[in-house]
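Need tokens for this chain, all 196 residues.
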Amino acid sequence: MPLAPPLPPGTERSDDDLLTLVAEGDRDAFALFYDRTAPRVAGLVQRVLVDPAQSEEVTQEVFLEAWQTAPRFDRARGRATSWLLTMAHRRAVDRVRASQSTRDRDLLVGIREFDADRDDVAETAETRVELDRVTRAMHALTDLQRQALESVYFGGLTQGEAARDAGVAIGTMKTRIRGALVSLRRVLAETETEAA
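Here are the structure tokens for all 196 residues:
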């Protein structure tokens, strides 16, 4: 007995229905689900990873995981697309962390092998000054502008997704982000002028 409800002739299955059929091992349903959702998954992964080769690899991993774990999808807890995009975001962030960990290990090995004289105090002071400038600039934003930037640039959401989460129109979200970036540039330019 199939878990997905039967459809009247001429109607199209929802992504939720397709994923329910995928859970039953339906390859055709998976192909259609893939065709519908792959662009959004690839876009999200690309925004987080930036590297096209890694993005393609992670996107493939996401769909493999979706095929394998489709029986765990529960319609009562959310929509199939949200389930899939959450999985994609988690995998992309995991890849970023793994890449960063590898870079950190390589850097530590390089530091051990290269023992040059350097001024750690000056380097630390410069980093702190930059961090202070950016922190001050972020505090100069309105709460709505700061939340918009954090959602899109640090949260990995599209402007449309950020707008939906904030309960505002896409145009409003774009205006907030544009205003935030203009304010950040102005405040950072002012602090750079003050420092000179």
